Amino acid sequence: MVDPEHDGLSIIRQCELLSVNRSGYYYEPVAEDAETLALMRLMDEIFLDNPCYGSRQMVRHLRRQGHAVGRKRVARLMARMGLAAIYQKPRTSTPHPGHKIYPYLLRDMVIDRPGQVWCSDITYIPMRHGFLYLVAVMDWASRKVLSWRISNTMDAEFCIDTLEDALSRHPRPLIFNTDQGGQFTSPRFTAVLEGAGVKISMDGRGRWMDNVFIERLWRSVKYECIYLHAFETASALRAGLGGWITRYNTQRPHSALGGRTPDEAYFFAPELQPAHAPVATPARGLAA
């Protein structure tokens, strides 16, 4: 984190070392009004059902429901929420021009035991008077949520905290898969994986199917928890998510797991035993 009182390093130099945009350090977010927050929640619900929608199609959908919105406004809100259409896009740019993009390693790979592949993603979480972001680390084979955090910004810090917490409490994976978001391509994030000896895999641009299981998790958590409760505060949201994720891991059977829960598939199935020993990596920040 940037320390404005640091004697030896200026704020500019600290931002450079942390791969943080200096304008982002000084930026103070402006709260959206109630009407805009309601529109953002509706857009999030529409996008879950129609992940191919870009801003143009989202505008058409909203106007058919009686909302007088323009494309520039919708595009701005979609960018703020982290919503991007899933169609394949030309590889003409990267989310962060200074970050390395790693190849996708899971194509045609048989993933049948914990510890082979973990995946991670960020999603937008609407609240009664605002919104937060949720990041989670999931084991691909068992669908178990290994760690999660909420944050009021989409920076790399809370993603690193979540990753380090997962590595400190579970056997490290062979491969870690994410999209090409700047949080996951950050040198600080990839350095944690490389230091643990984990191979890094990244989806193709716009290829949400490359990380399909965590996309399904987002759909479940929003329709079964977030949209059923109007959480007022971050602490209430954290408690609600904590209860839902615990039930998901311990009580929710999956047909793909032979009717077992994620915890049963991860801890007890003889054919699904962790592939590696845990790595003693200290967790940072508050536990989710």
Question: What is the fold's blueprint, element by element?
Answer:
Elements: H1 11-17, H2 22-26, H3 34-49, H4 55-64, H5 71-81, E1 117-127, E2 130-139, E3 145-151, H6 157-169, E4 175-178, H7 182-185, H8 187-195, E5 199-202, H9 212-226, H10 234-251, H11 262-267
Parallel strand pairs: 1-4, 4-5
Antiparallel strand pairs: 1-2, 2-3
Q: What's the total helix number? A: 11
Classify the secondary structure makeup into a structural class. Answer: alpha/beta
Q: Mean pLDDT, nearest integer?
A: 82
Residue stretches low in confidence (pLDDT < 50, at least 5 long) are 88-94, 277-288
Could you say what the CATH topology of the largest domain is called? Nucleotidyltransferase, domain 5
* Head-to-tail CA distance between termini: 20 Å
Fraction of residues in H or I helices: 25-40%
